[in-house]
Write a structure and sequence with these properties.
The structure is a homodimer.
Chain A (H helix, E strand, L loop, with lengths): L1 E2 L10 H13 L9 H21 L6 E4 L2 H15 L6 E5 L4 H12 L3 E5 L9 H8 L17 H5 L6 E5 L11 H11 L3 E4 L15 E5 L10 E5 L25 H39 L3 E4 L9 E6 L4 H10 L2 E2 L15 H6 L6 E5 L6 H19 L32 E5 L7 H10 L7 E5 L5 H12 L2 E6 L2 E5 L5
Parallel strand pairs in A: 1-11, 3-4, 3-5, 5-6, 6-7, 13-14
Antiparallel strand pairs in A: 2-8, 7-8, 9-10, 10-12, 14-16, 15-16
Chain lengths: 496, 496
């Protein structure tokens, strides 16, 4: 069994386990009490705070332990926005932020604030100039020097400086590293605090630059569940929301989980000690996956920035594959991976990250290697993957065998097949009521049978089609001619 | 060393420790993922939920694990009030609720809601009729039958049914058990949900009655820190506040702390198995303390209901004693206890619980015995207590030896001393700028030297004086004649 879902959660690091056991005996009392058990608990808490602060690169009194990374993001966004309520109520976020940030943004909108999402390129990366412009940098400061970037830029800068900007250090689904340092500089110049969601990158190193707030989550670095951290740098205006509580400087209510905190701090220190060596090693293993998957699996696309990326994470999508079915096939083959595919999400919409990138969401697989993963494990994965994909492609639910005579065991859909039995230059495929990847599969079946320049109109009401049909065209070289409601037009290109 | 602060936090129960260790290996993955590690974590979470629900007396799908008891109370109050926003925006709470409830009430006021605090008797208990009336029970339903109770009652019932009522199952500072079942019936009849803070009583048994919401905290029953629970019974309107999150049915955002949850559930089951035997045993030990403290310590008062009380908790106050100094003296003598005294609180105001009860807050000590406490430990405590109190009484900071010639090593203040050197029938003591217990000590010094009917005017700006001067009069038999700003009038009663 190989666990390749480190970006979701890691097993407890052995050092964390030892620290936890010790702290269970010493750290159970209320650190707010003056008796000796309370003082002992307080000492453990203080020591953990110092250790974590050193790893993060901040002062101990700037670091607050929270019950989760999600809690840190929720309370960090709300507190920073409330602290600057009179300055600006616009929240700027990257479109590919973790859902915890996007949900905090929705909550901000519900109380009357505004939110500006900054898009990303096909690799999932924000343009630092566009981001800076959205924040309001350049509208004050050096007149006319920078900032005429994206099409939406000019309009967004209107309204003065933002209340808060949020940018992840690296993306959790595709591993792309964001230009945090540049953006932080621009934010600092504009006087806008930047909150960095560092959940995915914190195990690998501190976040450089002049950010104002930072959030992290211990179970991503081998610490236990139930521990997050929120850093609020001195000088950052911050007004905690919700009921008052005196614990963690008023920034995380409730009795402190000291054994968990102690274990989290110990684990962060331990993974950092191994970070350089593991970065080099895992980067090679993920490079191997990036290179080999497109060779091994027909109609697969590796997504995310090929260079500016997390060392341990690689994501790819496979055409004509139901993502959930592929996860199950890989699980049965002994590999635990994750997916941003629409078909596994409880909301039945495609991953907002893949959508913002404009890449295929079908048959999406995220491989995130835990420290210590061996090359042999990765080789075994690459060996079993093609078979898993083929098995799923062979049994996509809802594909009718009578839909046009195509397919069969070894499907080679979408490739350069002949013109087959299609009657004329214009065909309509009705895939309404069918979930991804069926619309694309039905599209692929008929395109191959059209003459060059022939047009397929796909009727589809699954929102994922809006992402997957254009992405399929981009991958296969056919032309996407546009969408009108539930109707998508695709023109065949010869040799595609 | 004897740890007598169980009501703050308990060491991890051995059963919880075992469960935690096992769950560290099995429960670290994301229970929302479909791979086998995720499914294994989900199974542990589901089993813990079933076990906890059985102990609480609810359905598993009504019980949500939260990061703390405080979090459960904050989100429970906010969610229940938001769910009934259109019905009623009045929140009714007992004046002696835990600060987490009172802080949630303040937050409700900040967003435009109203709060009605229902007072308690000198034992710390609410009158169920008065509480029901404040909730609005009786304003609908059986016309004119009940409800003419307290002085504030009639006015408070105006405005129809409340949005939510909160009543603790038992008080955390004095151990008084509240009439939850009666109040729950009245609330149910009025159609108002009742949220029960069961943090202190849950180790001893389920909360009976038709309550709608319930909160608890695992570290109070030998579970780990970082785990609380919120029960929302089916049919209770509930609208979670803050950013959306899909975990724990949307009622507790953030990655679940599954090892902690598993340990918490195991511990609750374990303490319940021992609850009957421990209840009987500890009840005798606390009865011993209740009976002996007033005999052993001059000018000490045991507070809280003598019968309707938690088995393991007893609280007393000692005149002329600085609470913090007494805690340190007891700590040095090997006993870890707690205090609701003004002098130990970071806010420098007396415990709101003692204030609501109208009892002395000076030199307050809460003894809460962990399961397994031996009679010999309690005997040792009773043996050392008088010496600890005497040592602190001998060195109260800020008492000037020149203030009137009284005192010395073995102070017998406030008792029936002679008329001493006081000049006339009216004396003013200026204790402004001095913190408790100094104002009462200076009062006691001069009263003894006045003739019967003589009056002392105490000038004091420490808010605790407003509680302690009347309480001192009640204890010593002198007459409290009233307060005018910072001026308090006390008349000497002969023999007092």
């Amino acid at each position: 069994m190989s666990y390749f879902d480190a970006a979701s959660s890691l097993p407890l690091h052995p050092v964390a386990r030892q620290a936890l056991l010790a702290a269970l005996d010493e750290g159970w009392a209320d650190p707010g009490r003056p008796h000796r058990e309370g003082r002992r608990a307080r000492m453990l808490l203080d020591a953990a705070r110092e250790s974590a602060a050193e790893a993060v690169g901040c002062r101990p009194d700037e670091l607050h332990f929270t019950p989760s990374g999600t809690h840190a993001l929720h309370s960090g966004v709300a507190g920073a926005l409330a602290g600057r309520r009179r300055v600006g109520r616009r929240l700027v976020v990257a479109a590919v932020e973790h859902s915890a940030v996007l949900h905090a943004a929705e909550a901000h909108e519900r109380i009357g604030g505004s939110v500006r999402q900054v898009g990303v390129d096909r690799a999932g990366r924000v343009d630092p100039r566009e981001f800076a412009e959205a924040v309001g940098a350049g509208s004050t400061g050096a007149g006319g020097a920078g900032a005429t970037g994206g099409a939406e830029g000019a309009g967004a800068a209107a309204g003065g400086a933002a209340g808060l900007a949020c940018l992840q250090s690296a993306n959790h689904e595709v591993g792309t590293v964001q230009p945090v340092e540049e953006v932080a500089d621009a934010c600092a110049e504009a006087g806008v605090p930047l909150l960095v969601d560092a959940a995915q990158s914190l195990p690998w190193g501190p976040v450089p630059g002049s950010w104002s707030l930072l959030a992290g989550s211990a179970h991503k670095w081998g610490g236990p569940g139930g521990v997050g951290l929120l850093v609020v740098r001195k000088g950052t205006r911050f007004a905690p929301q919700g009921p008052v509580d005196e614990r963690e400087s008023g920034r995380a209510p409730g009795f402190e989980n000291i054994p968990g905190i102690v274990a989290a701090a110990a684990s962060l220190r331990a993974v950092r000690a191994e970070a350089d060596a593991e970065t080099a090693r895992l980067r090679e293993l993920t490079a191997l996956i990036r290179a080999r998957v497109p060779e091994l699996v027909p109609d697969a696309e590796v997504v995310g920035d090929p260079e500016r990326r997390l060392p341990h994470l690689v994501t790819f999508s496979c055409l004509y594959v139901d993502g959930e079915a592929l996860l199950h096939a890989l699980d049965a083959a002994g590999f635990s991976v994750s997916s941003g595919s629409s078909c596994t999400s409880s909301t039945l919409t495609p991953s907002h990250v893949l959508r913002a990138m404009g890449v295929l969401s079908e048959g999406n697989v995220r491989v995130s290697l835990p420290p210590g993963t061996e090359e042999a494990d990765v080789e075994r994965f690459l060996q079993r993957l093609p078979e898993a994909v083929a098995s799923v492609r062979g049994r996509v639910p809802g594909v009718r065998a009578d839909a046009g005579g195509a397919a069969g065991g070894g499907m080679t859909l979408g490739g350069g097949g002949g013109t087959g039995g299609a009657a004329g230059g214009e065909v309509t495929v009705d895939a309404r009521g069918k979930r991804c990847p069926v619309p694309v599969i039905e599209l692929a079946k008929v395109v191959g049978r059209l003459p060059e320049g022939g047009v397929v109109t796909v009727l589809a009401d699954d929102e994922a089609a809006a992402l997957d049909i254009p992405a399929w065209c981009e991958m296969t070289g056919n032309t996407f001619e546009g969408r009108d409601g539930e109707s998508y037009r695709v023109r065949r290109v010869a040799g595609a």
